[in-house]
Structure prediction request, 250 residues.
Amino acid sequence: MLPFLIILFVTGAIIGSFLNVVIYRLPRQLSIVSPGSHCPRCEQPVKWYDNIPLVSYILLHGQCRNCGLPIAPRYPTVELLTAVLWVVAGIQFGLDWPLLPALLLVSALVAIFFIDLDHYIIPNVIVLPVAVIGLAANIAISPGDWWVFLVSGLGAAGFFFAVAMLYPGGMGMGDVKLAGMLGFFLGTAIMPGLFLGFLIGAVTGIYLMASGQRGRKSKVPFGPFLSIGAIIALFYGDRLLELWLNLVQG
Ligand SMILES: [Zn+2]
Prediction:
């Protein structure tokens, strides 16, 4: 088990390093592949040995080797976060087919979390292909339950579409598509996922207003909360559903 988890940690950190590029460049409509990483101040290309996920940040004391410009802590954070999520996915799913869509989902959600946080957009180029792959993967893994994933995705998107129509200016079409994507991945676990998303969003919103950091009318993206709810549901959704059913049945 340990070598398997170490491989997941290292691969997750490398994917996280790639997600940093996606998070920075995709919303700015810059190419993902070229030019290579460079320092924003001295424009010196980052050497391969200074571009090792997590390790280089520590060895360089968080500074550009050439000019000493601090490297944003966001970069190692995204690498570590992705690595940890890959390890948790490995522990939850083991070396089995459902691990593959789980790794894809957590990686996509890391990118969506930070892009929506920074720019208030959820890019179609991430959500749409990932949604299709998620549905196809779940149908391939459990063909008997194909309709569960289809209905969960369409239901979640439909629910968000209704909310977006009823309260214009809150939810956007990006959230509608994201909810659909999550349903395709989570199946019935989409219910605790959305519930947790709304709960975490509401608690954070109240906190931001109470602490005066945001006004009642100011914009707070919903994608990050949906992403957190979905990741918890991916790992613990079955148990949450069971708990809920037990509570309902008394
Ligand atoms: Zn520099």
DSSP finds nine helices and no strands in the chain.
